[in-house]
Specification:
Strand content: under 5%
Helix content: over 70%
CATH topology of the largest domain: Four Helix Bundle (Hemerythrin (Met), subunit A)
CATH class of the largest domain: Mainly Alpha
Distance between the termini: 43 Å
Strand order of the largest sheet: 1-3-2
Organism: Rhizobium esperanzae
GO molecular function, one term: DNA-binding transcription factor activity
Number of helices: 11
Shape: globular
Protein name: DNA-binding GntR family transcriptional regulator
Domain HTH gntR-type: 3-70
Number of domains: 2
Low-confidence stretches: 217-238
Keywords: DNA-binding, Transcription, Transcription regulation
Length: 238
């Protein structure tokens, strides 16, 4: 399908939010975007409404649109529920995936691995996000998919340091994550629900410390969010 100025605006805003080119809470100027993409203000407003429905931006009455913020409340909720939703999505993906979706997952993994070898942080963020989006599509669950999509926005933003390793240990963790993706594909192919769920928790723990590198300067600790009822429930179910 040919790209249009309107679709380019939609894709560019999503990409810029996921990769932190647009900061959380940044204002979006309708007039400048209209001029930059060569579209009238009506299509810009349409895109804003679509992105708001998907959780990327917030539209405030009489104050315009802004990138969805990240604050103590949203981060707390993220750390509490993310592993549970990822695990539920994983189980349903095993039960419902289609061969064409598994092929899409494999091709996305090839791009993610190439980006990791080239240390292309922006490409890693986007391909990792797409990898986990496909799991949501595989699940075929109209209730969980929107929740997954919203989680992935903040996962990409909180975890962006993971794809910019600063030392050998971080590089090693990144390679482990690449390997996890391969294992996810193998477990799906074998229709092994338990293996997929086990991998979900391994994958989560791997990225958790790197996420803390992002939130620590703001005085927020993931550990404070991971010892409550949600974590206890996860431990019982795993």
């Amino acid at each position: 399908m040919a790209k249009t100025p309107k679709s380019n605006l939609y894709e560019d805003l999503k990409r810029q939010i996921l990769t932190m080119e647009l900061d959380p809470d940044a204002d979006l100027d309708e007039a400048s975007l209209s001029e930059k993409y060569g579209v009238s203000r009506t299509p810009v407003r349409d895109i804003f409404r679509r992105l708001a429905g998907e959780g990327y931006i917030d539209i405030r009455e009489n104050r315009g649109a802004r990138v969805i913020p990240m604050n103590h409340s949203t981060l707390r909720n993220f750390f509490l529920v993310a592993p549970m939703i990822y695990a539920a999505i994983g189980r349903l993906a095993v039960q419902n995936f289609k061969p064409v979706q598994l092929l899409d997952l494999k091709q996305t993994q090839e791009r993610f691995r190439a980006a990791s070898e080239n240390m292309d942080a922006l490409a890693m963020v986007l391909e990792n996000n797409r990898f986990h989006e496909i799991f949501g599509e595989m699940s075929g669950n109209v209730y969980l998919q929107p929740s997954l999509g919203r989680l992935l926005i903040d996962h990409a933003r909180i975890g962006h340091t993971f794809f910019r390793p600063r030392n050998e240990d971080m590089k090693r963790r990144l390679q482990v994550a690449v390997g996890h993706h391969d294992s996810f594909i193998d477990a799906l192919g074998a229709q092994d629900e338990n293996a997929v769920v086990d991998l979900v928790f391994e994958h989560w723990e791997l990225s958790r410390e790197n996420m803390e590198m992002f939130i620590a300067p703001q005085g927020l600790k993931a550990d404070a969010f991971l010892g409550g009822p949600a974590t206890q429930l996860l431990e019982k179910s795993s």
